[in-house]
């Protein structure tokens, strides 16, 4: 009996996960990679350093042309791709920058998903085709200045007045906020928390960009203020009450982060591997030293496990059996390990590790924000703790 020789795995794909992807999944991954390489990679360090993204709407249109906005949704001009294809796209986007993945994630998994899942048909038809093409940008208003992990205590209020709603309140740390055409706003009403699709040109609605960030600098982050914003009842989401609405959207976004964080990790791992193979000290490449190889291997082991976890969750999501607590596990583990990979890469690059000539410090800084948003480490830990013990420990 003869056997074929075992093919050596790629240094950045030790488990040969690529062999388990379908042709369609590889095509999505490769097309997103080409877009990032052509439109974003040549400029991202400058955008990050300057804290602004010129031509953001043109970039959104290019993302829409490729079908990346709301890509996992069906109908209304959305691409209807699989969860794994969406995850692979998130991985490639965040391998370029977390801010780029945030733009796509907030547009598709938060704003578009909220409208797609919870709005009436008229609102869906009004916004989703425009958002899928990138002609309209959306944001998702849940977090408030005094209420992040405890959205049930939000102070934004919506009250009925005739056939309209009047919204008052403030939301903060809102990605895309000051460039958005429509804001999904969650507010307390007399019958519980409700969602609203609010056109941002409505009188009384203002959005101010948040400056002086040291993380996610190539991303628009804003504060939203609603002062007597009047909208018709048709803009209210008709059938969802309580935190079920916003939490269902957050679960979609957290799934994408599970993949995206591994993109940032891969970028830093690749930079560290390339650098240490080329950089010489004591007459030898840094990669020839045992301690360097140990760091590289430990980074790659955690990256490989995180990628396998994301892939497993994606297959479960496509099968319709993915539980929210499993998404918490993915987000908790993969962002935490990605940060450690980026920090270790920083040490291998020495002083060059803090230069924007390399992607490492940018990814490490961005991931500090990703670690906190869409659920902190503490909150995801307690979600899993409650699942294990049956005992809630949030209060």
Structural notes for this entry:
Pfam families: Acyl-CoA_dh_1 (PF00441), Acyl-CoA_dh_M (PF02770), Acyl-CoA_dh_N (PF02771). Residues 22-134 form the Acyl-CoA dehydrogenase/oxidase N-terminal domain. Its cofactor is FAD. The structure is a single chain. With 395 residues, the chain is α+β, with helices and mostly antiparallel strands. It has three domains: 17-133, Butyryl-Coa Dehydrogenase, subunit A, domain 1 (Orthogonal Bundle); 138-235, Butyryl-CoA Dehydrogenase, subunit A, domain 2, CATH 2.40.110; 244-389, Butyryl-CoA Dehydrogenase, subunit A, domain 3 (Up-down Bundle), CATH 1.20.140.10. It is 50% helix and 15% strand. The protein contains eleven helices and nine strands. The strands form three sheets. It has a four-stranded antiparallel β-sheet, covered by helices on one side. A three-stranded mixed β-sheet has the order 1-4-5. A two-stranded antiparallel ribbon has the order 8-9. Strand 2 and strand 3 (164-175) form a beta hairpin. The longest helix has 35 residues, at 244-278. It is globular and about 80 Å long. The termini are far apart.
Which properties best describe this structure?
Butyryl-CoA Dehydrogenase, subunit A, domain 3, 11 helices, four-stranded antiparallel β-sheet, transit peptide, Butyryl-Coa Dehydrogenase, subunit A, domain 1, Butyryl-CoA Dehydrogenase, subunit A, domain 2, alpha+beta, 3 domains, AcylCoA_DH/ox_N_sf, 395 residues, three-stranded mixed β-sheet
């Amino acid at each position: 009996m003869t056997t074929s020789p075992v093919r050596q795995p790629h240094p950045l794909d030790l488990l040969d996960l690529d062999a388990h992807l379908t042709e369609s999944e590889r095509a999505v991954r490769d097309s997103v990679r080409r877009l990032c390489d052509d439109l974003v990679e040549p400029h991202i360090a400058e955008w990050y350093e300057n804290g602004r993204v010129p031509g953001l709407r043109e970039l959104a249109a290019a993302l829409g042309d490729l079908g990346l906005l709301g890509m996992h949704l069906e109908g209304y001009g959305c691409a209807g791709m699989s969860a794994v294809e969406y995850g692979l796209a998130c991985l490639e986007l965040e391998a370029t920058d977390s801010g780029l993945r945030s733009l796509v994630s907030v547009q598709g998994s938060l704003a578009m998903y909220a409208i797609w899942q919870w709005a009436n048909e008229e609102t869906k038809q009004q916004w989703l085709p425009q958002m899928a093409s990138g002609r309209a940008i959306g944001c998702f208003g849940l977090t408030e200045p005094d209420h992040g992990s405890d959205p049930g205590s939000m102070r934004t209020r919506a009250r009925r007045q005739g056939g309209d709603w009047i919204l008052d309140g403030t939301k903060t740390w809102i990605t895309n906020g000051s460039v958005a055409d429509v804001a999904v706003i969650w507010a307390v009403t007399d019958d519980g928390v409700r969602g609203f699709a609010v056109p941002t040109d409505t009188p009384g609605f203002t959005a101010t960009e948040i400056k002086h960030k040291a993380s996610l600098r190539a991303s628009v982050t804003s504060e939203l203020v609603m002062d007597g914003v009047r909208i018709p009842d048709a803009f209210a989401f008709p059938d969802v009450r309580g935190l079920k609405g916003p939490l269902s959207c957050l679960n979609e976004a957290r799934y994408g982060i599970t993949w995206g964080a591994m993109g940032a990790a891969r970028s830093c791992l690749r930079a560290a591997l390339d650098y240490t193979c080329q950089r010489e000290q004591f007459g030898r490449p840094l990669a020839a030293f045992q301690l360097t190889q140990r760091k590289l291997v430990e980074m790659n082991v955690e990256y490989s496990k995180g990628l396998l976890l994301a892939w497993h969750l994606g297959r479960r999501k496509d099968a319709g059996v993915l539980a929210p607590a499993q998404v918490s596990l993915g987000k908790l583990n993969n962002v935490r390990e990605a940060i450690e990979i980026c920090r270790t890469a920083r040490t291998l690059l020495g002083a060059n590790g803090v230069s924007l000539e390399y992607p490492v410090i940018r990814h490490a800084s961005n991931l500090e924000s990703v670690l906190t948003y869409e659920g902190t480490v503490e909150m995801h830990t307690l979600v899993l703790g409650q699942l294990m013990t049956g005992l809630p420990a949030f209060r």
